[in-house]
Structures
1.
Amino acid sequence: MYGESTAMKVLMQARVNLFTAPGGDTVQILKTREHLEHLGISCDLSVAPVQDYGPYDIVHLFNYTRIQETYLFAREAKRAGKPVVLSTVYWDNEETERKADLGWRKKLTGRLSMDQIERLKGLWRLVGERQWNKANLNLVRKGFLGLQKEAIGYIDHFLPNSEGEMSLFQSKFGQQKVLPYTVVPNGIDPDLLFDGSPNSDIEFENCVLCVGRIDGRKNQVNLAKALKESPFPLVFVGQPAPNHSSYMKKLRGEAGPRCQFLGQLPNREVYRLYRSAKVHCLPSWYETPGLASLEAAAAGCNIVVTDRGSTREYFGEYAYYCEPDSVESIRDAVFRAYNAPKSEDLKRHIVKNFTWAKAAEKTVEAYERVIANSAAHGRGK
């Protein structure tokens, strides 16, 4: 559809705190944009509503869990007559809210529904954090589930990270119709992971590494408990999520004598740590599948991952799986991974199948299909 003389122009939109509270979706968006531009696609990225949709052929939204901005952006794009695709970045987080160590939020989950909890979060953003905007007002007024159900009608095509994610999404939101989708897997950047920097960091050689935002969903406290008396050095990389300083304090309290906290590090240093470590462990309440696990596996680590989410679809028989609510399960998986030789098969599996370049190609295929369908039905450009 788009030849050399006609460049596709895409508007990407995502949550307002995409850069102030970065997560896996931040990496996914930036890497998707980077590799789309390598393919000649022009991409603008916004974390706020835009006034003029005119220049864009398609609008690409991210994250259905953080629904308030997604709903607003989708509605406005459809009012402007633009086709809309959504990278779902979704998993049902009810178990996390019920069981994970989330501080004051956990105290509410036994008394309130998920919809009520999310409305309270929206109210706190409005009143406590003074984030007065349409997105938070809609969340309080219409409710979390109300926004999720209504937004489905504004999306033309879905881009989940896995078949399992889409199956869950379909069962949750698409009971009345079959939702159109293309699986676009998360990935790694092999050129950056093996960029010629020093191959490893001797100080952290053969450590157990955990890279990720420090918060209750990532479940680092249970990992610290599992390895408190172990002979393995345990290294955490990452900073506390907003409003999770008490969780960080608890994590430090559970840390054993061989545990270190390195805080947030530049990617180049994180990649060196991957190459140094024997095991990377991410025992989260769910992962889809966890970008740090993908990177660590590609760098040669044995990996321990949660059995919740889409991890098995990515790692198959090559990973060591644990139950996030069992310290014993985490300990057993780490010990098995640590005592096994490093898996070259896992490394090859990731580098062959999961790269951002492949993800960009899948995304362009979906764009072209949606734009063509929109034009055929007289919608959008």
2.
Amino acid sequence: MPGAGSPVIARGALAPVVAFCLYDFANSAFTTIIITFVFATYFTTGIAVDPTTGSAHWSLAMSVAGVVIAILSPILGAIADQTGRRKPWILAFMLICASATALLWYARPTPGDGPWALVFVVIATVGFEVGMLFVNALLPTISTPASMGRVSGWAWGVGYAGGMLSLVVALFALVQADPPPFGLDKGQAEHVRATSLLVAGWFVIFALPLFLLVREPIAHTISAGRAVRLGMKQLINSLRHARDHANVFRYMIAAMIYTDGVHTVFALGGVYAGVTFGMQTAEIIVLGISLNVTAGLGAFLFGWIDDRIGSKQTIVISLVALIATSAVVVAAQDRATFWTAALAMSTFFGPVQAASRTLMARLAPPTMRGEMFGLFALSGKVTAFIGPAAVGWVTLATGSYRLGMATVLIFLLAGLLLLRGVKEPRAF
């Protein structure tokens, strides 16, 4: 990163940018360990009656979390706009996520503990996702219009590094340690359950700099009740006058579609590798770590491209590359080709997500950033089930998982075509 005197950093302050990036480093442990690789696998194979039932229950829990997030995000974002504060909301939802995650320690390997695990996974997921909308709304505060893309890219890159490092620690210090540390009982899966405590602690520790080093503008001194009333009024008024913000809403629709494709690859990529190429858990985890590395490098490097050519063009380039590399992944007949294409594909995961956050920050009116990021979070959840469902339906109809995963290309292409009509302000 540039030095403290660089014009890239808002008001010459390097510390807030570092703190912002560290928050992504902190929260990535949750998505990597709890949602994707370790605890999700433990629930489906260790807690549930059988993997099929476990997978169904886990998917349902994620759907419930998505509905709650979709309801809360725009409402809370609009309320936060009235007070001008982001950090109190970030702190509250960070603590909700970390506390609920820590309570997963009590999910023993017995079907009777399934409801406990699912309830707290839902609570933790809601805390994580809602908190992120307020973190994203801080981006213009800690960067300049000319550096927003770089700062967002750095944060995503650092986030992928956090996910990778936390997964490495979880695997080698807990899951695969023999004997397990601290006298953990493998028979009760304590070495796996302890990863929830690792994630909770990781999140809190590395999130602290955000609260200590990032300063917000002076907040409005209005009561909580008035903030709620004004926030709801603002949200309703914005929806009624959606035509006044047509460009922003057009972008939300485009992002909703292509993000569904990206998230589907994330959610089902490991399953695809196992089913199509017979990869075992250890190799899939190595694949996951490798993908985090290349995705992080892509997010970091493309930050400069974002600020040079704009967020929209960065997204366009990333989507074109994702479509091309995803096609190779789906068509690959051997592991070597699959690995090569998958690593190339993941290089553009970070840029498309980082630039999407930056473009939202550039398009949203300054007084409505919380609300707009709330609606952005809502748009990301409304159709989140369609991508995985499309893969499942086509797979069942054709008997081919390759053809099922090929539906991802449709989402990426459709989002790309809709994005063409979005106008980006020339502020970079």
3.
Amino acid sequence: MAETKRIMISVPQSLLDEVDAFLSKEKCNRSEFIRRAMIEFIKERKKAQLREQLRAGYAAMAEINRQLSEEGIAEDLASLRYYERLLVESETSG
């Protein structure tokens, strides 16, 4: 296990009472509870940050995809007009 450091924290008595009641049922001590709580807190924060990064990435990709689809539609329409013009020319010359 990694080196441990002793810290002091201040919490309201009502919170400490609630934690102690919980811990008596869980067969866990305060130190272990605080370690687990810190790990879970950091893990949840990292998940939230990742979700935000993904949301921002998807939003950016949505704009890029919209632009690409508009360019693709414009090219498809140009190709269709060219094809139709060739059809009309072949019908009138034949």
